[in-house]
């Protein structure tokens, strides 16, 4: 029995060496931009992310992701090119950047999140005419911008936040942000789930509703942008079992 | 008496044969006899309790949307704005031709006559959701149509497909894979090459102004 156990341990060791050896090359830059500073990773070594230990974490995380899911999350091609004014921290393979771009207010300048250009259009929900002078606040960064005559804010660098809770499971194909629009005489308007992509300009439209004389209970209006349905298809396929396939995999 | 019956039956048959059937009266819509629609009727379905568009929700109203704006408000919800431009162009063409075909073949449900609805029954539509990248892709293909060689306007179908996969055609299904369009665009294919890969026996034509 003891011989069997020792034999199986040796076999397991040899197998693990083979598996580790067959792992693909680690692209540290690609991985590290998805991991927020301060996140505790549920991987083999329970390490808290910091700027000093990104090498080790990147390798560990990539190895673990590869072992869990052969087709690991692939960010869009545009994500490889940081947006102008990006606040991305330099990866270990690139070396220190000569002049890091200024990060949006409220963000850690050493953060690994990328930014992308965002502008918000505010319109009257009834007349659909642009609203000038509305104040728009990006929830995650507390950036404040005001709309011009055409109802648009200026372009701002906003972070592309993907939910870290879902990152090891299925790569979300877009980040999400929330904004609140304020204007005197109008109900506050909260918009959640604005889709953000690295290296791509994003726009969103916020509807605001005028406060009327008969309005007694005045509360904010909520609008939620749904997840992209391509991601929902992928998510459902990810956990489909053979015994309960539901609608089954997509048929071409 | 027998002769009268015979004449009556013969006359009924003659009238039946000579009356034009509705099937043969249908016009074949081609690029030569049809101009690009200016407006499309979109049935807005009720949301499910969580606020997502419900493909089985009841129809609340029918919204008339300018055709170009409809295409621009569909594309970022069907394709991903961060994808390669050629993929977005192929998507823009599919979205447009799908909408064009259904504009020519409206349906009536629950008393509402419409061309498309706002859910994945047809194409995912969110009003005023156009994005700069997808708008540019649509503008670049706006003057063109992808039709049969004779000019007949047909529906360009598509499906999600699988990520990082060429998504080869299954038995001439004539369905473009959305992920497949991005795969081929990343390989350097143009939007016309992507369309040719998924749709057989079609041609790119300039729309008459």
Describe this structure in words.
The complex is a heterodimer of chains A (252) and B (209). Chain A has helices spanning 2-21, 28-32, 54-68, 229-238; strands spanning 115-124, 135-138, 144-146, 156-159, 175-182, 189-196, 202-208, 221-224. With 252 residues, chain A is an alpha/beta fold. Chain A is built from four helices and eight strands. Chain A has a five-stranded mixed β-sheet, with no helix packed on it. Chain A is globular, with a radius of gyration of 23 Å. In chain A, strand 5 (175-182) and strand 6 (189-196) form a beta hairpin. With 209 residues, chain B is an alpha/beta fold. Chain B has one domain. Chain B has helices spanning 2-18, 22-25, 67-78, 85-104, 132-141, 178-186, 191-198; strands at 39-45, 59-66, 107-109, 112-114, 116-117, 144-147, 157-159, 175-177, 203-206. In chain B, helix 4 (85-104) crosses helix 5, helix 4 packs antiparallel against helix 6 and helix 4 (85-104) packs across helix 7 (191-198). The longest helix of chain B has 20 residues, at 85-104. Chain B is globular. Chain A binds chain B through residues 71, 74, 76-79, 121, 123, 173-174, 195, 197-205, 224-226, 228-230, 233-234, 250-252, and chain B through 51-53, 76-78, 80-84, 120, 124, 126, 128-133, 159-164, 167, 169-170, 173, 175, 177-179, 186.
- Corresponding CATH architecture of the largest domain in chain A: Sandwich
CA(first)-CA(last) distance of chain B: 65 Å
Rg measurement of chain A, Å: 23 Å
Determine the CATH topology of the largest domain in chain A.
Immunoglobulin-like
Helix content of chain A: 10-25%
Largest sheet of chain B: 3 strands, mixed
How many extended strands of chain A? 8
Instruction: List the secondary-structure elements of chain B in sequence, H or E.
Output: HHEEHHEEEHEEEHHE
Helix content of chain B: 25-40%
Instruction: Work out the helix count of chain A.
Output: 4
């Amino acid at each position: 029995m003891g011989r069997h156990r020792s034999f199986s341990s040796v076999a397991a060791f040899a197998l693990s060496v083979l598996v580790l050896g067959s792992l693909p090359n680690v692209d540290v830059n690609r991985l590290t931009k998805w991991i927020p500073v301060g996140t505790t990773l549920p991987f083999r070594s329970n390490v808290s992310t910091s700027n000093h230990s990104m090498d080790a974490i990147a390798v560990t995380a990539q190895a673990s992701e590869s072992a869990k899911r052969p087709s690991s999350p692939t960010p869009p091609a545009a994500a490889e090119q940081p947006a102008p004014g990006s606040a991305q921290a330099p990866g270990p393979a690139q070396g220190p950047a000569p002049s890091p771009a200024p990060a949006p207010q409220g963000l850690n300048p050493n953060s690994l999140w990328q930014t992308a250009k965002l502008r918000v259009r505010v319109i009257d929900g009834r007349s659909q005419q642009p609203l000038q002078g509305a104040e728009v606040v990006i929830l995650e960064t507390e950036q404040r911008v005001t709309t011009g005559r055409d109802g648009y804010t200026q372009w701002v660098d906003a972070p592309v936040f993907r939910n870290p809770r879902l990152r090891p499971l299925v790569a979300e194909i877009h980040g999400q942000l929330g904004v609140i629009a304020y204007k005197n005489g109008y109900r506050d308007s909260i918009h959640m789930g604005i889709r953000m992509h690295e290296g791509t300009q994003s726009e969103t439209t916020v509807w605001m509703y005028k406060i009327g004389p008969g309005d007694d209970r005045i509360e904010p209006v909520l609008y939620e942008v749904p997840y992209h349905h391509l991601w929902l298809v992928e998510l459902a396929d990810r956990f489909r079992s053979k015994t309960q396939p539901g609608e089954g995999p997509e048929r071409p | 008496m027998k002769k009268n019956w015979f004449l009556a039956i013969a006359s009924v048959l003659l009238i039946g044969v000579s009356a034009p059937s509705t099937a043969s009266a249908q016009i074949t819509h081609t690029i030569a006899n049809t101009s690009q629609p200016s407006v499309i009727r979109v049935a807005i379905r009720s949301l499910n309790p969580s606020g997502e568009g419900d493909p089985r929700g009841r129809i609340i109203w029918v919204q008339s949307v300018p055709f170009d704006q409809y295409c621009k408000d569909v594309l970022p919800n069907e394709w991903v704005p961060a994808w390669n431009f050629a993929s977005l162009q192929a998507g823009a063409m599919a979205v447009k031709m799908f909408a064009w075909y259904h504009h020519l073949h409206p349906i009536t449900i629950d008393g509402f006559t419409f061309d498309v609805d706002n859910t994945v029954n047809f194409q995912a539509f969110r009003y005023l959701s156009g994005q700069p990248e997808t708008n540019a892709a649509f503008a670049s293909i706006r003057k063109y149509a992808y039709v049969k060689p004779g000019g007949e306007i047909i529906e360009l179908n598509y499906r999600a497909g699988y990520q990082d996969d060429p998504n080869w055609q299954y038995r001439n299904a004539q369905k473009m894979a959305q992920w497949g369009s991005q795969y081929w665009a990343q390989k350097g294919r143009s939007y016309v090459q992507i369309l040719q890969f998924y749709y057989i026996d079609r041609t790119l034509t300039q729309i008459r102004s």
